[in-house]
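Standup notes
- DV: blocked on the single-chain target, sequence here:
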Amino acid sequence: MLAIQPACEADVPQILRFIRELARYERLEHEVIATEADLRAALFGERPSAQALLARLEGVPVGFALYFQNFSTFTGRPGLYLEDLYVTPQARGRGIGRQLLRHLARVAIERRCARVDWAALAWNTSAIAFYRGLGAQPLEDWRVFRLTGAPLEQLAGPDGG
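- DV (later): unblocked, structure below
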């Protein structure tokens, strides 16, 4: 039996394991610097900045979704941003990813969110096909930008870069 529930603080080590597995699959494991303490603070600290769902099959963790709230000025309503969706290789093909997204869609509707957004790596054609199958549309005209490391520090500095 599949159960999808909000993660609790005791799930933090498992969430970090899943993040590392996802990063390995995405060929980005070298970028994972998060620690259990980081995740504990982000998910369960004084000012949580994200939430997570955990999927368990017969009580065994098999996947997760990590998300946070954003805001659309165009709709004047909040949205949800899905940062990570992961199902273990041995549990794939059983509809678990779809059920995680279904649960997230319900959260979005309950919160009166206008939309759910996420990104997919261009080479991950199976994920893209899965998302299209749900009715999700890629935003072809948009590019994702990231400011990190030294450029972020420089812009935040006293002279603004």
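- Follow-up: The first helix runs from residue 12 to 25.
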